Amino acid sequence: MEYLVQVLGSGLLQGLVYSLIAVSLVLIYKSSEVFNFSVGEFCTLGAIFFFVFQSLGMPLWVSIPGFLLMAAVFGGLVEKLIIDRLIGRNPMSITLVTIGISSILIGCMLIFFGANPETIELPVPDLTLDFAGALFISSQVWNGLIAASAMVALLLFHKFSTMGILMRATADSQVKSIVLGINARRILTMTWGISGMVAALGGLVVANGSAVSYDMGVVGLAAIPVVLLGGLESIPGAILGGMIIGLVETTTTFYLEPWLELPGFQAIAPYIVLLLVLMVRPQGLFGQELIERV
Length: 294
Fold this sequence. Notes:
Layout: H1 2-32, H2 39-55, H3 60-81, H4 91-112, E1 118-119, E2 129-131, E3 134-136, H5 138-160, H6 162-172, H7 174-179, H8 184-207, E4 211-212, H9 219-230, H10 235-260, H11 269-280
């Protein structure tokens, strides 16, 4: 029984981290129909920002707001200097540009940060949990708590704050929002900034207890099946999708791989589940079904 609790608990905690990164993707897609393939590098850069504050000996109450602010500014600058100039073009073209942004960021991080991994350890109390015979280490518990808290805060912000309402209005229709007097371009810049903050926090929880390196951005690939499974436009869908993918990975690792005698099957299991779901619901679990009248 404790073995099952360990597998399910680890899957849910890992899934919360995936959900956090996926939410960053959803925010941008909802606002501009652009799939940000550089989200993994946004995560890495956020972890590097935190490492810089940590290296300078800054206390946690300075490091957290500081690195989030830097990530938000960076996300806003990317939108203002690059994405804004492409507004009006096919969203697929802008999506391809984000792949170029990813490559540029990897090169810059390799030049300025170096190739050696650097350890990150949040100075927080020990929360190692022994539950029903299952052991969850402190960094694992903290990562899940931070990811869950961030997503709850974002959902509340998105639903009840003035800026969140403006973001939702702009995401529904940029043309209508402009007619109503909303500065859609400014909202889009702020959306990229907020998405940068969310991705940076995702990078921090991925690196916490291990290390940050220039090639850590591959974690962004794990968010792709999460977003497609939950629905490209749905934040709740991204959260649920992340937990499903997390559970699929851990149950595959601990049960299916030994049974099937297929080492590495865990890497493709999420995509098999994604394919099965998309065969039934092509728009994802919470995605919007578009109906065109002719």
